[in-house]
């Protein structure tokens, strides 16, 4: 039997018709099943959780059939309370499926601690940008008799002398004691 005769035979055409009908019915059933199991068209609205505590966020997510997933804490943000939500993904108002994970970024309890660099015998012009780059702010500047003019003699924080390597919270105000260029008196 030749190929042309086989493709035009009654048996082949009947089998082809049955295969098309089976694929159509199977596709229809699979699409119905997917529509049912994936809750097609059913969405939950993501609530706005920014500024809320973990407990309140958990309650709101439970009410909306959503799952909380806490990510690492970010840098401390003084505009938000400690341990409150400062960012979320997906954002508030977005439509998501039930049981979707909502990723939360929390505000830590305070600024992270940073090591104080060794700035002795550095000029004020060198020390200021180094401290500011680390996140510190410059407080009071006082001068003492010291041969190096505008050189850092010591660093102080809340009246206490600092050593290189001491840990201070970011944004701490560090006072500088600089030399005035005069030879120290030998009293």
What do you see in this structure?
The protein is an alpha+beta fold and 187 residues long. It has three domains: 3-37; 44-106, Trypsin Inhibitor V, Chain A (2-Layer Sandwich); 113-179, Trypsin Inhibitor V, Chain A (2-Layer Sandwich). Helix content is 29%, strand content 26%. It is built from four helices and eleven strands; from the N terminus they run ααβαβββββαβββββ. It has helices at 3-7, 10-37, 54-63, 124-134; strands at 44-45, 67-70, 85-89, 95-96, 101-106, 113-115, 137-144, 152-157, 160-162, 167-169, 173-179. The strands form four sheets. A four-stranded mixed β-sheet has the order 7-11-8-9, covered by helices on one side. Strands 2-5-3 form a three-stranded mixed β-sheet, with helices on one face. A two-stranded antiparallel sheet has the order 1-4.
Question: How many structural units, i.e. domains?
Answer: 3
**Structure annotation, total helices:** 4
User: Spans with pLDDT under 50 lasting ≥5 residues?
Assistant: none
Nearest-integer average pLDDT: 88
Q: Which shape, going by the Cα principal axes?
A: elongated
Order of helices and strands: HHEHEEEEEHEEEEE
Mind summarizing the main beta sheet? 4 strands, mixed
Approximate helicity band: 25-40%
CATH topology call of the largest domain: Trypsin Inhibitor V, Chain A
Strand line-up across the major sheet: 7-11-8-9
Write down the CATH class of the largest domain.
Answer: Alpha Beta
Supply the helix-strand structural class: alpha+beta
CATH architecture of the largest domain: 2-Layer Sandwich
């Amino acid at each position: 039997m030749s190929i042309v005769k086989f493709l035009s035979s009654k048996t082949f055409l009947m089998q082809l018709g049955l295969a098309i009908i089976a694929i159509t019915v199977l596709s229809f059933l699979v699409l119905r099943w997917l529509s049912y199991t994936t809750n097609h068209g059913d969405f939950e609205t993501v609530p706005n959780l920014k500024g809320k505590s973990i407990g309140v966020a958990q309650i709101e997510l439970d009410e909306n059939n959503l799952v909380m997933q806490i990510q690492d804490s970010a840098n401390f943000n003084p505009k938000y309370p400690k341990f409150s939500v400062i960012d979320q993904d997906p954002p508030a108002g977005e439509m998501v499926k039930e049981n979707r994970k909502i990723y939360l970024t929390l505000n830590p309890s305070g600024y992270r601690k940073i090591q104080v660099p060794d700035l002795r015998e550095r000029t004020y012009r060198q020390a200021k940008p180094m401290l500011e780059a680390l996140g510190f702010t410059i407080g009071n500047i006082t001068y003492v008799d010291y041969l190096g003019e505008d050189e850092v003699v010591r660093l102080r924080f809340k009246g206490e002398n600092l050593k290189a390597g001491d840990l201070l919270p970011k944004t701490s105000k560090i006072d500088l004691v600089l030399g005035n260029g005069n030879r120290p008196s030998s009293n």
